[in-house]
UniProtKB/TrEMBL annotation:
Organism for this UniProt entry: Xylaria multiplex
Residue ranges of the TM segments: 36-58, 131-151, 157-179, 200-222, 242-267, 327-349
Protein name: Ubiquitin carrier protein
Record's keyword terms, sorted: Membrane, Transmembrane, Transmembrane helix
C-alpha cells in the first residue's frame, strides 16, 4: 500500500515538473521573441535616424547655405558686336523677350527647390559627393591641431586659426566639389596651389575664425558676468532671472547673424571665385562676381577681395537669412518629431507588454 502511494506521488511530481518545464520554456521563448523584436526596432530606428541625420546635418546644414551664398545671376550678358557698318542692322534684328517669373526666382530661394536640385545633380542628395573631401579636411585639421595644442602658454584658438590656414586648400576644394556637377576626377586632383588659395583666403579665413570664437566666448562671458542660471531647476527657483538666459541667447544669435554669417559669406564667395574657368556649376553663378579679374596659369581666378565679396552679395542677404531661419525650424521640427515618435512607440511597446 505504501509503495503504491509512493508511486502515485512520484508520477504526480514528474507531471508537475514536466508542466513547470513547459511553462519555463514558454517564458523563455516569449522573452527571446521580445528581445528579437526590440533588436529589429533598434536597428531600423538606427538606420532611419542616421539617414535623416546625415541629410540634415550635412546636406541641409552645410551644403544648402554654400549653394545659396554662391548663386548669383549674371548682371549683364555680353553681346558680340559686328563691325560698325552692320551694328544698326544687328540691333534692329534683336527680339526682346520678357523672362518668365519662374526663371527669375533663384534656385536657392527655398529648401524644397534646393532638395530637387541636388536630387537631380546627385542621386545621393550630395551625401557622398563632397562628404569625403570634408572628412579629409577635418582629419587634416585635427592632425595639425593636436601637436600644436601641446605647446604651452598659447591659447587654443590661436592654433585653431593656424590649422585653418594650413588646411585651407582642402576646405576650398570642398566648396568647389559641392557647387559643381559630379565628375570622375577625384577631389584631390582638383586642389589648387597653396600660394594661390592662401593669398586669396587668408584674411577672410582669419576673420571667420575670430567671429566663430566670438560666437562661443562672448555669450559665455556674458553668462558668467551675469551669473546666468541655465539649469531648469535654478530657473524654476528664480523665474525673475529668466531675462539673463534670454540675453545670453540673444547675444549668441546677434553675433551669429551680424558677424559669423557675413564672415562665412565672404570666405565662401572668395573660395568660389577661385573655381577654374572650365568647370560648370549646379546653380547660376556670375563667374566675374561683378569684378574683372585676371586668371592664373591653371585657369583659376586671383580671387575676390573682402570688400568685393561683400559688395557682390548685395541683394542676396534676405534670401540667405531666410534660409538660415528655415534650417533652424526644420532642425527643431525634426527633433520634436523624432521625440514624439519615440515616445509614442515606447507607450505602444509598453501597452503590448514588450517593454515593462
Amino acid at each position: 500500500m505504501i509503495q503504491h502511494l509512493l508511486a502515485i506521488l512520484a508520477a504526480e511530481w514528474s507531471d508537475g515538473s514536466r508542466h513547470i518545464g513547459i511553462i519555463s520554456r514558454s517564458n523563455d521563448q516569449r522573452e527571446t521573441l521580445k528581445t528579437v523584436i526590440l533588436l529589429i526596432l533598434v536597428v531600423l530606428h538606427a538606420i532611419a535616424i542616421i539617414l535623416v541625420f546625415v541629410y540634415i546635418a550635412y546636406t541641409v546644414y552645410k551644403v544648402f547655405p554654400i549653394l545659396t551664398i554662391v548663386e548669383s545671376r549674371l548682371s549683364y550678358e555680353a553681346i558680340p558686336l559686328q563691325e560698325a557698318g552692320g551694328m544698326s542692322r544687328e540691333l534692329n534684328s534683336l527680339q526682346t523677350e520678357e523672362p518668365s517669373p519662374t526663371a527669375q526666382i533663384p534656385l536657392t530661394s527655398s529648401i524644397r527647390r534646393m532638395h530637387e536640385l541636388v536630387k537631380q545633380t546627385d542621386h545621393m542628395w550630395l551625401r557622398r559627393r563632397g562628404l569625403g573631401a570634408l572628412a579629409v579636411y577635418h582629419l587634416a585639421n585635427s592632425l595639425v591641431i593636436i601637436p600644436l595644442r601641446a605647446v604651452p602658454l598659447v591659447p587654443g584658438f590661436v592654433w585653431d586659426a593656424v590649422a585653418v590656414l594650413l588646411t585651407i586648400q582642402l576646405h576650398t576644394v570642398w566648396v568647389h566639389v559641392i557647387i559643381t556637377p559630379p565628375t570622375a576626377k577625384p577631389f584631390w586632383k582638383r586642389i589648387l596651389p597653396f600660394s594661390t588659395v592662401f593669398k586669396a583666403t587668408a584674411a577672410a579665413s582669419l576673420i571667420y575664425c575670430v567671429t566663430t570664437e566670438l560666437t562661443i566666448f562672448t555669450p559665455w562671458l556674458a553668462a558668467q558676468v551675469l551669473r546666468t542660471p541655465f539649469a531648469l531647476s535654478q530657473i524654476q527657483k528664480k523665474p525673475s532671472e529668466l531675462w539673463k538666459v534670454l540675453l545670453s541667447i540673444g547675444i549668441f544669435v546677434a553675433i551669429q547673424a551680424l558677424a559669423c554669417a557675413p564672415a562665412l559669406v565672404v570666405l565662401t564667395r572668395i573660395q568660389a571665385s577661385l573655381l577654374p574657368e572650365g568647370e560648370g556649376t549646379i546653380v547660376p553663378v556670375d563667374r566675374t562676381f561683378g569684378v574683372e579679374k585676371e586668371r592664373g596659369k591653371y585657369g583659376e581666378a586671383k580671387g575676390l577681395s573682402i570688400f568685393e565679396a561683400l559688395k557682390s552679395f548685395n541683394g542676396s542677404w534676405t534670401r540667405f537669412y531666410k534660409l538660415c531661419i528655415k534650417i533652424f525650424f526644420l532642425i527643431l521640427g525634426c527633433l520634436v518629431g523624432l521625440g514624439t515618435i519615440l515616445g509614442l512607440e515606447y507607450l505602444a511597446l509598453r501597452a503590448v507588454g514588450i517593454l515593462v
